[in-house]
Amino acid sequence: MSHVNEPIDLRSDTVTKPSEAMRRAMAAAPVGDDVYREDPTVNRLQETVAGMLGKEAALFVPSGTMSNQLCLRTLTRVGDEVIVHEDAHVLHYEAGSAAALSGLQLRPVAGALGVLAAAEVEKVIRPASEHFPRTGAVEMENTHNRCGGTIWPLEAMEAVAAVAWAHGLAVHLDGARLWNAHKSTGVPLRAYAATADSVSVCFSKGLGAPVGSALAGTREFVEEARHNRKRYGGAMRQAGIIAAGALYALENNLDRLVEDHENAALLAGYLRQVPGVELIHPVQTNILIAAVEGLGVGAAQVVGALEEEGVLCGVATAGRIRFVTHLDVGTQAVKAAGEILVRVLSGLSRAARPDGHADRAAAAGSAAGTGTSAGSGPAAADTAEGAGS
Ligand SMILES: *Cc1c(COP(=O)(O)O)cnc(C)c1O
User: Are the C-beta atoms of residues 292 and 302 closer than 8 Å to each other?
Assistant: First the structure.
């Protein structure tokens, strides 16, 4: 590799490492056995999160996947159908757990920028019949990961919730990055959370904590989820050590998410300079997804070429690469990455089509050679590496 420094890691906001101050807070945290409900730091985190989301109670869990799955498990019965966006994290990146662990089938529905229209949700709610699965719940994801960190407008959430509740369905909000939506729009967390029976939030993404997520809902719901958490093996003992990282993150790293959004906008400016690269979604928070088919080389080759020059990003879906800004990459590093991007991607583009007229067949050929295909729809094939978090 030709770079001398550490690579600039823009693969995901999950790569953030705990700062010295966060580590000190974790080391100093008072702890107890959380299965006995005696960990004061876990209790404080749960009360804090419940308060921030305007819910009666919250539960600390090891991961966002467990959090989502506990919510779906607790809201539904075996054999139910859950309506989700066709690009939902629960559909693509949770290892089939809704089916494997809860006996659920997911019903994917299309929607621009990851947002479901209430009318489209209403169309797929099953009428009561012994032939049909029972529709048990509707799931929303804000911000929407696979659609590029896009934000569900509050009104869209309210409309979906109104339809779901009118039909007696439960509503779950995958708010892994709800913090980003809140910081971008100024909509209170409680207002978003009020549109769902259960909410899941992550501390291990842009907030920079090393481990952990939380779910929130009514006291009764959280008690039931707690029982399911035990079944799933997610009940932890002196978990205050890691809960302290999450508390530190909420107290110190929430407001600074706006910097990540500014840095994403900055990076978008560089990408827009490269012919053949297309940002396929408006950059609303900290995720950028760029279609690179126009460069005439496969996405995996693009990722490899950037890695050579010290910029790490990921293959999102076929023909698309993903960048995520976060607290371990400051503005200067983002500018440095942007300059490398422009140089490397422009070079790839020139090499692939010296006469400036790449033909689609050449692009498709090289894409096939790297195990990707030139799919263009939102449901394009995934690569093994994926960009699930
Ligand atoms: C990251 C993420 C999750 C949970 O991921 P874990 O890696 O299990 O913590 C859930 N939903 C969305 C939208 C995510 O981005």
Answer: yes
